[in-house]
């Protein structure tokens, strides 16, 4: 019997699909200026929306759990978390016995950062549109329009 590999391909695809999907929001990555911080922020936003009542926005994730979900190693997680903290988007604290690292997103700061990013991109687009209207013939500025 000839083996065409289709059963193996189907098994691999089922394993991949079973791993789940992490939503990567490009807009968040652009706003924070870093793809890994954007990925972590996307994932933390996801978990923030699924918290039980009474948590006041705090959730716990271990480094191995974050790595499993995002495929980000320790250093990449540390760098991404630092960037989010520096931007005022993430709070961290150790709680419990034994101490565990807990996270809380400053959701209003995330929204404000996105507003600011959209305004900046709109200004850049209007500036580029204005420059494009001044350019003719192979992107050379015409001297009479300078």
Q: Report the oligomer.
A: single chain
Rg (CA only)? 22 Å
| Shape descriptor | flat
Strand content: 5-15%
Report mean pLDDT, rounded to a whole number.
86
Largest sheet: 3 strands, antiparallel
Task: Output the strand order for the largest sheet.
Answer: 1-3-2
> How would you classify the helix and strand content by structural class?
alpha+beta
Task: Give the SSE map.
Elements: H1 6-18, H2 26-32, H3 35-48, E1 58-60, H4 63-70, H5 74-86, E2 90-95, E3 100-105, H6 107-134, E4 135-136, E5 140-141
Antiparallel strand pairs: 1-3, 2-3, 4-5
Helix pairs in contact: 2-3, 2-6, 3-5
Give a written overview of the molecule.
It is a single chain. Strands 1-3-2 form a 3-stranded antiparallel beta sheet. The protein has a two-stranded antiparallel sheet with strand order 4-5. 14% of the residues are buried. It has 6 helices and 5 strands. By secondary structure, the chain is of the alpha+beta class. It has helices spanning 6-18, 26-32, 35-48, 63-70, 74-86, 107-134, and strands spanning 58-60, 90-95, 100-105, 135-136, 140-141.
